[in-house]
Each structure stands twice: as C-alpha cells, then as structure tokens.
C-alpha cells in the first residue's frame, strides 16, 4: 500500500470521524488505524463505520503504541491528558504527531515542547487556513492600534464543548498580546461577573458562549472612542479543520524534530 500512513487516536469522536473520512478521500495518504480508550464501545468495530466508508477490515484498537508502530504520523484530537500521553508515545516510537486538542495547561504545553525535541509535531488550536490568517491579521492590528483600542474576543461553540475559552480564542488573544509586545498572562481578562469595576486599560477580554450545534465562531473587537474594528471567522463544517490537520500530517512526515504550528504548514511566517 502506498502513501503516508496516518493513524487517528480518538477516532470515534466528532473530529476523529471527520479525520478518517478526510484521510480516505485525500490522495497521498491512507488510514493506518484508529484507537479509542479501553472500554469505549467503538473498540473492536470496523473503522469504516466511523469513516463513513465501506468496511475497511481494520478494527478500532485500544493500544496506541501499536498504532504508532503501524503509522508514519498520528493525528490526535482527544483530551489534554490523552494528548500528553500520545506525545510521549510519539517520542518513544520515533513518529510524528499532529494535535489539535485544546484546553492544555502550561505544564501540558511544556511537555509537548519537551517531547518535540526528538520528533516533529504540529500543535495548533485551529487547523483552518482562515483562522491561521486571522491570527496574523489580529497581531498586525494590535500592533498598529495601540492601547486606546480595547480588545475583546467573543467565541461561540456547540453545547458539547468542554473547555473555555476556546483554544482559538486564547490563540487570538496571544496574537494580540504579541502585537502589543506584552505577556497575555499580565493582561488577560477571562470572563467578567458581578462588581467588576471599570475595564482595565490594556486588558484583553474573552467571553465564551455555548449552544446548539455551532461549529466555531470567533470575533475580535478593537473598540475605541468613536470607532470599532471587528475581525472574525465562522466555521460551518468540521471538514475545514480535518483538511488542515491532514495537510499538516502530510507536511510533517519526515521533517526535522521540533514543535511547529499551522503558520509553518501554510507557509505564513
Ligand atoms: N485544532 C482544531 O482545529 C480543532 C480542535 N478541536 C479540539 O479537539 C478536541 C476534540 O474535539 P471533539 O472531536 O469535538 O471531541 P470528542 O469528545 O467528540 O472526541 C474526542 C475523542 O477522543 C476520545 N478519547 C479520550 N481519551 C482518549 C484516549 N486516551 N485514547 C483515545 N481516545 C480518547 C474520546 O472518547 P470518550 O468520549 O470516551 O472520552 C472521544 O471519542 C477538543 O479539544 C477540541 O477543542 C476541535 C475541532 C477543531
Ligand atoms: O471544540 C471544538 O469544537 C473546537 N475547538 C477548537 C477551539 O477550542 O478553538 C477549534 C474550533 O473552534 C472547534
């Protein structure tokens, strides 16, 4: 069989299924296998059921080490602790990893950086071309507009999302902080409630809405006296994230070890 062999951990999840379907439909790559955690009801079922294809003759596994051995690259959209375990496995088995999992804390991200010293990894909170470009535009706007323009980021996602603010909102906030040459930790305002007092000058605010089946909306507002600049993005299908992740997997196979993001994959640096 030819093409880059791509494994998918968390293959029965919303993104996992979309990734399988996208790999099956993309030239130059093939499905190496998929896993779910032990005890998940998908384990043992044919992967084709989750890819939306004919039976593939490959059962969903629960042994990620075996998947890393069978694959050239593994794609992970799971949960932060699972992602860290998968990054350790990638390093131990010498295989590339693409992860889009959000909600990682500073310690989890430090572990990704550490494991990426030995193997190539792509880590991005949003794999779409549109959001990758939006981050670039937000950095430029923040650099040009200065602290008279209050930055507020509003995101909305489906009712099943478990982390807030979204990884993309945090990425946009980081881009704005970079543009202003400040640390996000010093200026982030992650949700207001009660007797908040007036807005802090230079703060970067974030607000998270949850409801229905919204795939992912992000809006960055620069509000000044007399005018307001708004930059935004709406995803209407998870396919846009899956296409980006599969492009990242093909791009990262055989690269020099290191932690990359979608700006590298899309050549937007
Ligand atoms: N970067 C990007 O472009 C995007 C990022 N995301 C992020 O991707 C992540 C997943 O989102 P989504 O697909 O909607 O979530 P889902 O809950 O639908 O899918 C996650 C899947 O991973 C499984 N899983 C959990 N632990 C393990 C493990 N140890 N081994 C194997 N599988 C495991 C879950 O199983 P179980 O249900 O049993 O826990 C579930 O099937 C989130 O962090 C989300 O924010 C989403 C879309 C785009
Ligand atoms: O959980 C989701 O669905 C999404 N998560 C990512 C995030 O947290 O930014 C990306 C996308 O908006 C969908």
Automatic annotation (TrEMBL):
It comes from Tistrella arctica. Catalyzes the conversion of 4-hydroxy-tetrahydrodipicolinate (HTPA) to tetrahydrodipicolinate. The lineage of its organism: Bacteria, Pseudomonadati, Pseudomonadota, Alphaproteobacteria, Geminicoccales. (S)-2,3,4,5-tetrahydrodipicolinate binds at residues 158, 167-168. One of its GO terms (molecular function) is 4-hydroxy-tetrahydrodipicolinate reductase. It is found in: Cytoplasm. InterPro entries: DapB_C, DapB_N, DapB_N_CS, DHDPR_bac, NAD(P)-bd_dom_sf. Homotetramer. The gene is dapB. Residues 130-266 form the Dihydrodipicolinate reductase C-terminal domain. Belongs to the DapB family. Its EC number is 1.17.1.8. Residues 4-127 form the Dihydrodipicolinate reductase N-terminal domain. HAMAP family: DapB. It comes from the Bacteria. This is 4-hydroxy-tetrahydrodipicolinate reductase. Pfam families: DapB_C, DapB_N. Keywords: Amino-acid biosynthesis, Cytoplasm, Diaminopimelate biosynthesis, Lysine biosynthesis, NAD, NADP, Oxidoreductase. SUPFAM superfamilies: Glyceraldehyde-3-phosphate dehydrogenase-like, C-terminal domain, NAD(P)-binding Rossmann-fold domains. It is an enzyme of class 1 (oxidoreductase). NAD(+) binds at residues 10-15, 100-102, 124-127. Pathway: Amino-acid biosynthesis; L-lysine biosynthesis via DAP pathway; (S)-tetrahydrodipicolinate from L-aspartate: step 4/4.
